[in-house]
Amino acid sequence: MKTKFNNDIHPTAWTPPPSIVTVLLAMLLVGASTAADRRFDRGDDDDRPSAPCKVTALLARQAARAEATSDYYLGLARASTLPGAEDRKTAKKQAREDYRESIALAGEQYNARLTLCQILGETRYHPVINPADFLTPAETAAHPNPYFPLRPGTTFRYRGENDEGTETNEVMVTDQTKQILGVTCTVVIDIVYLNGALKEYTWDWYAQDRQSNVWYFGELTLSYANGQIAGIEGSWEAGVDGAEAGIIMLADPRKGDRYQQENAPDVAEDMAQVIGFEDSWCVRYGCFENVLVTKEWSPLEKGVVEYKYYARDVGFIFGIMVKGGEEQTELVRIRH
Predict the structure, then answer these.
(1) Closest Cα partner for 73 from 28, 33, 108?
(2) What one-character-per-residue DSSP string does 109-159 give?
(3) pLDDT at position 122, please?
(4) Is residue 259 within 8 Å of 247, Cβ to Cβ?
(5) What pTM value is reported for the model?
(6) pLDDT mean over 18-43
(7) Are residues 159 and 329 in contact, defined by beta-carbon separation less than 8 angstroms?
(8) Which H or E run includes 241?
(9) Which of 110, 235, 251, 309 has the fewest CB neighbours in a 10 Å radius?
(10) Do 148 and 224 share a domain, yes or no?
(11) Nearest to residue 135, comparing CAs of 170, 92, 184?
(12) Can you tell me the mean pLDDT for 227-255?
C-alpha cells in the first residue's frame, strides 16, 4: 500500500503564514514524539526479557522510520525556500520518493534482523573484553591464527571485478598499534582503487586472544570521490556509541559455526558462518589446499551474501558475491 500524504502539508491554493506553519508542524512533531515516548516507555526490555533481539530489531526500525520522517520534513523545508514553483514541486516530489524508499528499507532491515534473531536466538550480544585475555601484537605475529595471520610487514594485493568496473586492493599489516578498551590492536591498512582512482582508505583494528580467535575492534574508513574525501560512512570503534567488538576469524572454525564480526547498530552489523572446507582452490597468486569457506552477510544489506575463501598461513585469497550482485576478488600478490 502506498503511503499517503496529507495535502495540508503540501499547500496548493492557500499557504498559511510562516508562523502558523511553524506552530502546526511543531504540534505535529511534539505529538508524535510524545506518543512514541509513551509507547517505548512501556516497551522497556525488562518487560520482555525473553526477546531482547526482537526488541532491538523493533527499536532500530522505529529509529529508521523517525529518521526518514525527519529527513522528509527537512526536504519540504528546503523545497519551500526555492524561488520557482516548478522547482518547489520537483523538490517536494523527490522528498516524498526518498521518504518511501527509506521506509521500505527500514522494513527490509527489520525483517533481516528478525531472521538473525531466529539464527542466533534471543541472547544479548555483549562480549566481555578483558585485556589480559589478548596477546600483544608481537606475540600474535609469532603465533598467528593460521587463517588470519597478522604479521607486520606483509602486503597483500587483490584484484576484482564488479558492477562499477575493476577494483584493486592493497592490504598492509603494519607495525602500528591502537589501544581500544585496553587491548593493543594491530593496525591493518586497506586501500581500494576503482578503475585506477582512489575509492577508500581504511584503518582496521584487530587483536588475537589467547585462544587464537582474531577479534575485530573497528575501523576508520575514508571514502573518496573525484580525489576528495567524501565521508566516513561505515566507521566504528568498539566502546564508542554502543559499538562492540566481534570475531573476524575463529580459532578452530568448524562447519556450521556462526559468529558476529562487528556490532555497531545501523553502521556495521556483519555476520559470518562457516560453510566448510575445500580440498584445494586456485587464484592468480597460486593454488592452496584445505581452504576455509565462510558466508558473510549483514541485515543492513538485505539480499547480499558473499562467500570468502581463506588459505592456511596466508589468509583471505578469494571472495565472490553469491546474492545481491556480481562481484569477485582474488589474491594476485604477496610482499613481505
Answers:
(1) 28
(2) HHHHHHHHHHHH-S--------GGGB--HHHHHHS--TTS---TT-EEEEE
(3) 64
(4) yes
(5) 0.72
(6) 44
(7) yes
(8) none
(9) 251
(10) yes
(11) 184
(12) 95
Amino acid 68: pLDDT? 84
Please identify, among 60, 88, 120, the residue that sits at the C-terminal boundary of a domain: 120
Which pLDDT score is estimated for 49?
53
230 in the same domain as 326: yes
Asked if 217 and 140 sit in the same domain, the reply is yes
Tell me the average pLDDT across 257-272: 89
Cell numbers for 209, please give them.
Answer: 586472544
The residue range of the domain holding 184 is 131-335
Rounded to 5°, the CA angle 156-158-161 comes to 170
pLDDT in tens, 185-240: 999 999 999 999 999 999 999 999 999 999 999 999 999 998 899 999 999 999 99
Q: How far is CA 49 from CA 39, 85, 118, in A?
A: 17, 53, 16
